[in-house]
Amino acid sequence: MKLTSKLILKTWGVLSFAVGGALALAVYSQVAAAFFATLFVANIFLFAIAFFLRARIDGVIGYIERRSDSLMSTVDPSIKALNVDYVHEPKTGGLLVFLAAISGCYFLFLTIKDVDAYSRLIVEDGIVEYASAVFWALAALMMLVATVKSSRKIDAAEFKPLPSVILLIFFVVCAGEEISWGQRLIGIETPDLLKAINVQDELNLHNIGSISVFSNAFFFLSVLFFFGLPYARSRSEMASHLIESFSIPFPNRYAVKTFKIALVVWIFAGVRFGTLGFHPFSVYAENYYNQLDDEIFECFAAYSFFAFSVMNSLSVVEVRPSD
Question: Would you state the pLDDT for residue 308?
Answer without folding.
Answer: 96
